[in-house]
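pinging the channel bc i need a second pair of eyes. not urgent but kinda urgent?? the chain im working w is below, pasted from the shared doc
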Amino acid sequence: MIVDLRSDTVTRPTAAMRQAMMDAPLGDDVLGDDPTVQRLEAEAARRAGKEAALFTPSGTMANQLAIRGWTQPGDEVLMEAGAHPFNYEAGGPAVIAGVQIRPIAADRGLLVPDAVWPFVRPPNDHFAPATLLCVENTANRGGGSVYAQATLDALCEGAHARGLKAHLDGARAFNAVVATGVPLDRLAAGFDSISFCFSKGLGAPVGSVLCGPADFVARARRHRKLLGGGMRQAGLLAAAALHALDHHVERLADDHRRARTLYDGLRAAGYDVAEPATNMVYVTLDAAEQAAAHLDTEGVRCLAAGPRVIRLVTHLDVDDDGIAHAVERFAALRRAA
């Protein structure tokens, strides 16, 4: 048996999703006439409670379009130090928007409003003006941690009071929705824009979406074209995303349950494990890369997230037997140490 816990991005389309892709009516999205893309964008905007939405090839592009759309070159963007746009988007904010990131360290990746506002510096020709706050929910490097709604509201209110826009990097926003029971439109209500991915826990092969005001999305559409993100018969991919929204949101609870089972099993085997909030389990152990390489030979694929940390992510292609196999192999590794 091989169980792939490297990321929820490794999921493959289900048979029903593949059929939905094959049945999708198509057009040319760059020319604005792909009906399936149009349907997806309307549905995404509706669910997020925003005026409009734009289908993008990746979450990275969606975040970069948001940063470009809300800032000017020379501005400063505030975000948590472990946030995806700061760590995993190839320096895009500097290259695409010409802005600098101000990273703010926070416990489990969750910003605390009162700790953020001292980083908003007063007007001064020496300072880069802070114009945008980015918040990641769930927080990947925080272990898939989830914000309380009151904290999200306070972050947005505080940002707006200080003249900043607020963008929600909701790559795994539906994991937060399922974990908290808060609907997406309420979760995103205070934010000027939100992005979320279809290619992670929702199980689609490709794609993310950026939602916000109509004029902002129109600017983002032009910048998407500039960056080469315009796709032609993109309805094939949009159909997968629509299927995911209709069929794969509630089932995220299964991933969360399996993450908890994995956590319990690893703790019982003697590992130092961070309690999961959603679908991510972080394990602390010596020589993480060597351990991950050994586990790969035992049919458990995982990623070293640091010299002494392994990240395990549950998803739609991991069943209960896969979790049991992973626990067994980790336990064997522990016994052999």
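so The chain has a mean pLDDT of 97. and The chain has two domains: 10-247, 251-336. — does that match what u expected or am i reading it wrong
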